[in-house]
Structure formats: C-alpha cells, structure tokens
Amino acid sequence: MSIPMDIWQAVVSEFSDIADIKEATVIALRLTLAAVLGAAIGYERELSGKAAGLRTHILVTLGSAIFILVPALSEMTTADASRVMQGVVSGIGFLGAGAILKQTKDQEVKGLTTAASIWVAAAVGVAVGYGREAMAVASTLVALFVLAVLRRLEARVHRDEKES
Fold first, then answer.
1. Closest Cα to residue 98, out of 111, 107, 109, 88?
2. Which of 33, 67, 112, 133 is the most exposed place for a label (fewest CB within 10 A)?
3. How far is Cα 125 from Cα 66, in angstroms, rounded to an integer?
4. Facing residues of 102 across strands?
5. How many CB atoms lie within 10 A of CB 145?
6. How far is the first Cα of the chain from the last one, in angstroms, to the nearest whole number?
7. How far apart are CA 17 and CA 160, in angstroms?
8. Which residues pair with 101 in a beta bridge?
9. CA 118, 28, 116 angle in degrees (round to 5)?
C-alpha cells in the first residue's frame, strides 16, 4: 500500500520547519542545555526533599526555552518575542504559586524558595532559548550557590539563634 504523493508532500511540508543541519544543531544544543541546567537546579531541590524537584525544573527550563526558540527562529520582531516572554513569566507565576503553602500553625509559609527556583529556572530557559548560553550557565551557578551554600549559612544562623 502506497501513500498518495499529495499526502506525502503535505506531511513533508508540515515537518520542514527546520531549515538545515545548522538550525537543527542549534535547536538540539539549546534544548539539551536547557534540560541540563534545569536538572542542576531541580537536583538541588530534590536533595532538599522539595516537591518541585528534578523533573519539574527540567520541564520549566525546557518549556521556557521552547517558547522563546519559536519566535527567535521564526524571525519574529522583538516586540512579538517580548509578548511571548511576558506570557512565560505570567504562566510561571501561577506554577510557582502552586508550590507555596501557608501552614495554619504559627502562620508559617512554605515553598517560597521552591517557587523562586521555578521562576529562576524559567528565566534560565528563556536565556538559553535566546542563545544567551553563557548567561544561562552563570545564572544557574548563582542560583545553585543561593540554594545550596546560603541554605547552610541560614541553617547555621538559626542554630546559633536557638543556642543563645
């Protein structure tokens, strides 16, 4: 059984949005880097026992990169890409809000740091999607410093407060 030529041509034309091997390489590299950087942030959250961990952060960076890659590679105007970025930021705000829980006991709020890490992961994905890989890597390293190193410092301060 053979596929009629016009159907085959329609299928081929629908999947011809990647112009050449150079563009395919750029897309693959950016999506892979977004996933790796999201994994680094998510792994730290996972080690801390947080609900939003490895997979969540990978999907946030990957999704953000995709949302930016599409207008960037489609030669959309800066204004159009800016509107896409505004949508990403708004959407991530809702996702981050879902990570925040208010405990009735002692009016304690939990999940703010995880919500902030989701927000940063989205920004990292946007940077990667725009081709700002060095900025994305540097931002991830700063985020990991804040999440891992400052957490230890914070714990030490709280421990010293309890002892005195």
1. 111
2. 112
3. 8
4. 109
5. 10
6. 82
7. 59
8. 110
9. 5
How distant, in Å, are the alpha carbons of 64, 65, 76, 78, 107 from that of 124? 8, 8, 21, 19, 32
pLDDT computed for residue 110 by the predictor: 80
pLDDT for the residue 3 = 73
Number of neighbouring beta carbons within 10 Å of residue 12: 9
SS3 of residue 135 by DSSP: helix
The distance from CA 49 to its chain's CA centroid, rounded to whole angstroms, is 19
Phi, psi of 95 (to 5 degrees): -65, -45
pLDDT (0 to 100) of residue 153: 83
Query: What is the pLDDT at residue 104?
Result: 62
Report residue 90: phi and psi, to 5°. Answer: -65, -45
Residue 5 above 80 pLDDT?
yes
CA distance 143 to 160: 25
pLDDT at 95 over 90: no
